[in-house]
Each structure stands twice: as structure tokens, then as C-alpha cells.
């Protein structure tokens, strides 16, 4: 499959490129330095009406994964955290859209679309991140609903979220089949959000531990009427994987932007360092790798838009996430090298790209897990 951008998609890209340059870029370093949640950037995204971009038109979206990737790439080029704000709004929206009941869609989607509501998703626990099936949080059935007990870590956006989609097992058999997602609303008795992690990257959107002590969740807050919400939501996440790749592409492009400017202004041995072949070829390699990643990401996004799913989509989406984020790490590392000592100085923005790139290789399924998905597909083994 190939892809081309429609006139609408080019318009969205150009609008966001301009906003990113004029309004977002100047805030990026400060957000990273202070590690404070950028409410002003959230308000900007809200004003632009971007909280439903990948979703159907009935919710005000463009119903396009390609458009969503373009938006993420352009914001990610200047500010990882602002691009992240979009994604953390889209994740609960996509989950409820994919796995929620009509009642849940009515209660939560409109608020997420306007930015009046914010959500988060909590799967990871101290003993199990990649191994989702190893979670220990339990949901015990009681009259009118369930009672949840356990704890979570790394729950991004939870400090500000109006609700969290919490993964818990409803049975005692410890199998992945018993996992459900429960909508735990802020203020629920026994539910507590802990202190935010002091992170190396992705610093503007806090991640926190959660504590659930016998928290009552009514029947109406189990995602998916049939109790199959978790599986449906996981398939929805497969479809949104190109977005993480787009963050990698945007980050790599931003690192190239900074490096190109720097090497043209820095001199050594009486010449601009951009005249040295060693620098020129490094820059060309960075651009080549980024363009290859871009093509893979938009191919995967176009497949989603064309209706691909399951085994057809999974390996390509995994390749897009893995290749683009590995590329981001490689390109950001080379960019730091081109800056010399300035590359590791906090006076310059480039080390922010390096730190954020590392996060991308770990989140949303580590790049080892993506390689497992690809290898399982090649070897004809079931996805794990
Ligand atoms: C900034 C940030 C935000 C996050 N936000 C959220 C969030 O909002 N909600 C949430 O639920 N979680 C979140 N996470 C957690 C994230 O999903 C996990 O960190 C990730 O899934 C990896 O789990 P882990 O850290 O426990 O590593 P582990 O699973 O312990 O893995 C450790 C290492 O072993 C490798 N490994 C594990 N299994 C295999 C295998 N089968 N084959 C090969 N290698 C393997 C991994 O790739 C990794 O290199 C966030 C993490 C970060 C850093």
C-alpha cells in the first residue's frame, strides 16, 4: 500500500506546523525544565479543537489516522510534551469509543472532545509492565458492581484525570482472559494518586502511582457491556500504534532542524563545521533514516484508515513504532554529537530530544515487545 496526503491533510499539517513554530516551540524548554503540566498548551489544543482528530466526524474529528500522525509529528518536532498532551487525550477517547457502552460514550466522549474531561489508563504494576497478563490488581464482584484492590505505577496524566481506566483481573485464575477495564472516577473512596515520578524525559506530563483500596466501581463503569472491553481496547491500541511512530519521526526531524542550524553557525579549524564531510554525511544519514521512518509510519497509518486490522496490521504497526522510535534515538544521539559539549549543556535544547527519545523506545510496548510481535508474525506464532 502507498499513501498520499489529501488537500485537507496538507491543510491540517500546515496549520499545526505554523502554530507549533509560533506558539509551542518557545515553551518547550521551560516545560521540560520545570516539569510542570503545561495547562496553556492544553488550552491551545482545546481551542484548536484537536481532541477528536483521529475519530469519526460525528464526534468532530477528521476520522483519519494519517491526519492524527501529521499533527503529532508537527508538534513533536518542537515539543514532545505538547504532542503527548494530544495523545493522552486520544487514548481514553479511543478506548471508550472502541469498547464502551452507549451510556459510557454519552457520559465521557463529549467531555473528552471539548477538553472538559481528562482521562488516563493504568495497566502497569511494579512487577509487570510488558507482561500485562501478570497484573495483580483484583476486582471482586459485589452487589451493584465490583471492588478493586491493588496498585499501579507510571500512570500518565492521572494527577489531573477526571477518571482512570484501570486494568484488573476479575477472577482468581490469573489468566489474561480475566482482565477487564474499569472506569474509576476521581474522588472514588479508597482511590489515591501518588507522587509524580521524577522522569528523565516526557517531563511535562506527569506519571504517578495509583493506590486502590477496596474501591467500589458500579456496574455501569465496566468498559464494555459484555466484559470483553479489555480485548477490544487492546485492538484499538494496535491501531493507534502509528501515532507513537509519528512522535519518533517528529522528534528526529526536530533534532535535525537544530543540528543543521548549529553546524552552520559553529566553526572549527577556520571553517564552518558544516563544511566537514564527517558532519555532512552524518546529517545526510539522519535525514535518510528519518525519511524511511516517516514512510513506514504513514504507510501504517494509511492502512488503519483503509480498514486494516488484526494480523494484517499488527506487524506493520509494530515496525512503524519500533523503527521510528529507534530512529529517533539514533538521530537524537548523533545530533548531540554534532553539538559537541554544547550538546550535553542545558543551555541548548538538543539534550531534551535525546532524553525524550529514550522514553519512546520504552512506552506503549517496548521495542523488544514490538520485535516479538514482528517475529511471531513471521514465524506464524500467535501474538503474545
Ligand atoms: C514516561 C512513561 C509513561 C508511561 N505511562 C504509562 C501509562 O500511562 N499507563 C501504563 O499502564 N503504563 C505506563 N508506562 C509504563 C510502560 O507501559 C512500561 O514501562 C512498559 O510497558 C515496560 O514495562 P516495564 O517498565 O515494567 O519493563 P519490563 O516489562 O520489566 O521490561 C524490562 C526489559 O525487559 C524487556 N522485556 C520484557 N519482556 C520481554 C520479552 N518477552 N522479550 C524481550 N524482551 C523483553 C523489555 O523490553 C525491557 O527492555 C509508562 C512508562 C513511561 C516510561
How large a portion of the residues is in β-strands, by DSSP E? 5-15%
**Secondary structure category:** alpha+beta
From the alpha-carbon coordinates, what is the Rg to the nearest angstrom?
21 Å
Dominant shape: globular
Oligomer: single chain
Name the average pLDDT: 95
Tell me the span between the first and last alpha carbons.
26 Å
Name the helix and strand elements from N-terminus to C-terminus, one letter apiece: HHHHHEEEEEEEHEEHHHH
Helix content: 40-55%
Strand order, sheet with most strands: 2-3-7-6
Small molecules bound: flavin-adenine dinucleotide
Largest sheet: 4 strands, antiparallel
The strand count comes to 9
Number of helices: 10
| Uncertain runs | none
List the helices and strands and how they pair.
Elements: H1 7-34, H2 39-48, H3 65-78, H4 80-99, H5 102-114, E1 119-122, E2 138-142, E3 145-156, E4 163-169, E5 179-185, E6 191-193, E7 207-218, H6 229-265, E8 267-268, E9 271-272, H7 277-305, H8 310-338, H9 350-362, H10 367-378
Helix pairs in contact: 1-3, 3-4, 3-6, 4-5, 4-6, 6-7, 6-8, 6-9, 7-8, 8-9, 8-10
The chain binds flavin-adenine dinucleotide (FAD).
Flavin-adenine dinucleotide (FAD) binds next to strand 1, strand 3, helix 9 and helix 10.
Summarize the structure.
This protein has helices spanning 7-34, 39-48, 65-78, 80-99, 102-114, 229-265, 277-305, 310-338, 350-362, 367-378, and strands at residues 119-122, 138-142, 145-156, 163-169, 179-185, 191-193, 207-218, 267-268, 271-272. It has 384 residues and is an alpha+beta fold. Flavin-adenine dinucleotide (FAD) binds at residues 120-124, 129-131, 154-156, 199, 202, 207, 359, 362-363, 366, 368-369, 372.
Amino acid at each position: 500500500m502507498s499513501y498520499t496526503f489529501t488537500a485537507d491533510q496538507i491543510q491540517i499539517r500546515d496549520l499545526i506546523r505554523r502554530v507549533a513554530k509560533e506558539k509551542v516551540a518557545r515553551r518547550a524548554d521551560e516545560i521540560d525544565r520545570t516539569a510542570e503540566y503545561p495547562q496553556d498548551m492544553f488550552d491551545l489544543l482545546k481551542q484548536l479543537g484537536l481532541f477528536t482528530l483521529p475519530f469519526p466526524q460525528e464526534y468532530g474529528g477528521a476520522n483519519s489516522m494519517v491526519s492524527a500522525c501529521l499533527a503529532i509529528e508537527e508538534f513533536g518536532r518542537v515539543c514532545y510534551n505538547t504532542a503527548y498532551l494530544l495523545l493522552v487525550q486520544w487514548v481514553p477517547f479511543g478506548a471508550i469509543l472502541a469498547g464502551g457502552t452507549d451510556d459510557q460514550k454519552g457520559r465521557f466522549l463529549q467531555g473528552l472532545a471539548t477538553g472538559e474531561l481528562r482521562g488516563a489508563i493504568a495497566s502497569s504494576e511494579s512487577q509487570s509492565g510488558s507482561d500485562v497478563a501478570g497484573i495483580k490488581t483484583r476486582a471482586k464482584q459485589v452487589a451493584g458492581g465490583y471492588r478493586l484492590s491493588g496498585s499501579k505505577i507510571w500512570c500518565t496524566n492521572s494527577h489531573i484525570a477526571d477518571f482512570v481506566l484501570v486494568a484488573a483481573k476479575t477472577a482468581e485464575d490469573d489468566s489474561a482472559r480475566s482482565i477487564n477495564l474499569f472506569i474509576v472516577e476521581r474522588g472514588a473512596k479508597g482511590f489515591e494518586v501518588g507522587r509524580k515520578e521524577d522522569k528523565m524525559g516526557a517531563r511535562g506530563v506527569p506519571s504517578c502511582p495509583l493506590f486502590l483500596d477496596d474501591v467500589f466501581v458500579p456496574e455501569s463503569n465496566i468498559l464494555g457491556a459484555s466484559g470483553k472491553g479489555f480485548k477490544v481496547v487492546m485492538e484499538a491500541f494496535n491501531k493507534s500504534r502509528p501515532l507513537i511512530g509519528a512522535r519518533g519521526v517528529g522528534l528526529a526531524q526536530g533534532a535535525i532542524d537544530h543540528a543543521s542550524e548549529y553546524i552552520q553557525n559553529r566553526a572549527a579549524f577556520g571553517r564552518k563545521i558544516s563544511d566537514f564531510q564527517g558532519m555532512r554525511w552524518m546529517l545526510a544519514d539522519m535525514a535518510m533514516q528519518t525519511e524511511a521512518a516517516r514512510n513506514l509510519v504513514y504507510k501504517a497509518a494509511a492502512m488503519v484508515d483503509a480498514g486494516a486490522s488484526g494480523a494484517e496490521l499488527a506487524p506493520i504497526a509494530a515496525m512503524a513504532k519500533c523503527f521510528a522510535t529507534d530512529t529517533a534515538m539514533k538521530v537524537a544521539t548523533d545530533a548531540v554529537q554534532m553539538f559537541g559539549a554544547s550538546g550535553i549543556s542545558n543551555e541548548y535544547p538538543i539534550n531534551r530530544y535525546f532524553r525524550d527519545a529514550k522514553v519512546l523506545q520504552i512506552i506503549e510496548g517496548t521495542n523488544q515487545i514490538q520485535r516479538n510481535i514482528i517475529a511471531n508474525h513471521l514465524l506464524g506464532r500467535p501474538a503474545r
